[in-house]
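This is your field. Please look over both lines of this record.
***
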Amino acid sequence: MDKIAVIGAGLIGRSWAIVFARAGHDVTVYDLNPDALEPSRKTMLGNLGDLAAAGLIEEAPDTVAARVRFTPSLPEAMEGADYVQESALERLDVKKSVFAELDALAPPETILASSASFAPVSSFASELEGRARCIVAHPVNPPYLVPVVELVPAPFTEEVVVERTHALMTRVKQKPVVIRKEIYGFVLNRLQAALVNEAFRLVEDGVTTPAELDITVSDGLGLRWSFMGPFETIDLNAPGGVADYTDRAKKPFQRLAEEQSDVRDWSPEFLASILKAARTDRPEASLGALQDWRDRRLMALAGHKLKAQKEHKKDPA
């Protein structure tokens, strides 16, 4: 698959363009709003400059950027495309409309993938004639720094589509994981929702503050989780490995699950208090600079992890 079409020039679409272009693919980016194209191109150049400064691309930013073309014409973007990454609004009516257009324009062999964060592909592509070539390829924001991509086929998605998408994502140095059955929110966002819901609960109940909870994650769980997931973590956290850990933690975790089982509708007053705490620590005018700082820290971490993987390949010996 040589030519890629990206549908949507926003943050996710622009980030996907970087992923594919830095791997050598020709990319055409389309957006329904023509006024969004030039700002997206300029921001992409800045992102590529940051990546070059961090040593995360092997070519000059201009060389990578030259592979990306922005167009206000959907047929032009689709022409000759082997793979399409849709990154439109997360609304079923929008995705149904966009996928109907893509299905009508694309040759039968072209894969149609969605960046949907929650909705499975069967919820917006099941009525299409070409539904068998449709799949969700859900990235983590921004995908050029956080490489996991959840590949979520529908029951009607052909296996060869999963295989070809997996191969493409591997070639462009993403980390594809296949979700074996459709489920709302997939895996990453279900895990994220569990943590965020409990974070809200702990703050609402007066157990902790937003700032101190953030410290607990960023300087606690997050440090371990930046290199290993929960199953590997528990295997290393007890003398006898995973069996020892589960024997020790089974009853306490069951108690916690019971205490965390209630579903809450966060009140406007509580959400206002969360916003107030956020703006006390992070004034709105500082958010852009903080986003840039976050991305630079992610670049540094990505570089460190790449070096560690090359040196050790997860082999302590």
In short: The beta strands are 3-7, 26-30, 68-71, 83-86, 111-114, 134-139, 148-153, 175-178. Residues 218 and 224 are 10 Å apart (CA to CA).
